[in-house]
Design goal:
By secondary structure, the chain is of the alpha+beta class. The chain contains 3 helices and 2 strands. The protein is 34% helix and 15% strand.
């Protein structure tokens, strides 16, 4: 696990060090606050095609994948 110190700029932005950006290979992140900590979770390409579909829902990426997979299976079986 890499630990780096970063600062907020005057506009509240945080710049991720290049070494971390290269390892994560993502330009878009989910952000969570949990127990006083900030957690950044890379958005995977697989999820990007579903962006906005579940707007307003408080679902994790894994939950979205599971729901989408089940609905796709129903569609392919002709149940929808």
């Amino acid at each position: 696990m890499a630990v780096e110190v970063v600062r907020l700029d005057d506009n509240g932005r945080v710049y991720l060090p290049a070494s971390i950006r290269r390892r994560l290979r993502s330009r878009e992140f989910y952000i969570e606050e949990k127990d006083g900590r900030i957690i950044l979770i890379p958005v995977r390409e697989k999820l990007m095609k579903y962006r906005g579909i579940f707007r307003g829902e408080n679902l994790t990426g894994e939950e979205i994948d599971e729901i989408t997979e089940k609905e796709t299976e129903k569609l392919l079986r002709g149940e929808l």
